[in-house]
Amino acid sequence: MIDLFPTGARHAVIWLHGLGDSGAGLAPLVEALTLPAERPVRHLLPDAPERPITINMGYKMRGWYDIRSFDNPADRAVESHVRESAARISALIDQLVADGFAAERIVLAGFSQGGVIASFTALRYAAPLAGLLCMSTYLAAPATLAAEITPAARALPICYMHGIYDDVVKLAMGWDAKNQLEALGLSLEWHEYPMRHEICQPQLADIRRWLLTQLTD
Q1: pLDDT in tens, 90-149
Q2: Does the annotation mark 90 as catalytic?
Q3: How many domains does the chain have?
Q4: What is the largest CA-CA distance in the chain?
């Protein structure tokens, strides 16, 4: 795990990468945000474990969970793997709190698979967090969310971002997540970009603005 811990940091962001990537793969994004030095932020970029991924012919790669198929929503994310990964990230939040970072100063952010784990974790975390940032992603186990969402998560600042031409996680999957969250009474900021399954330059400016809004004392 990459841990960028500047002196004086009181806020933290946990960044969760996509399938086949690593924490190091998101490090350039963090650098590109050029957050102000006078507001130091700790950035943690953990690595998913290596596991066989069914849709990639069973090849082993870093993945927060197995994807059996995109045809059936239940097969997009193996729920037992999702819960294992979410428990790991919850423990990481707990460790940050033990290190002196208040939960309300911690943001969870993720791209693609990482966004699935970020949303699953944040919406079920008992303490209020600073925010949830989801990029090019969807919801796992949405049928359980109404019963498992915590009172703290109902006021969670949420931002979803998606590419209009995404051919890996279709825009409709992002919209489906948005609609399901709104049906539960949650409000979220939504952005679409003329891009595929990636992160574009205009998006970086929106991420920076949103983060600075959430990471305040």
Answers
A1: 999 999 999 999 999 999 999 999 999 999 999 999 999 999 999 999 999 999 999 999
A2: no
A3: 1
A4: 47
Catalytic, 43? Answer: no
Reported as a pLDDT band with limits 50, 70 and 90, residue 74 is: confident
User: pLDDT (tens digit, 9 = 90+) per residue, 45-61?
Assistant: 999 999 999 999 899 99
Contacts 24+ apart (CB under 8 A), 28-36: 29/199, 29/204, 29/207, 30/4, 32/204, 33/204, 33/207, 33/208, 33/211, 34/208, 35/208, 35/211, 35/212, 36/212
CA 11 to chain centre: 17
Please tell me which residue in 17, 21, 119, 166 is annotated as part of the active site. 166
- Structural domain span for residue 193: 2-214
Q: Which of 75, 90, 197, 206 is catalytic?
A: 197
Q: Cβ distance 121 to 89 under 8 Å?
A: yes
Domain of 124, CATH number, reads: 3.40.50.1820
Cα four-point dihedral sign 62, 63, 66, 70: negative
Its pTM stands at 0.96
Tell whether the torsion through CA atoms of 195, 60, 121 and 11 is positive or negative.
Answer: negative
Options 112, 119, 136, 162, the catalytic residue: 112
Mark whether 197 is an active-site residue.
yes
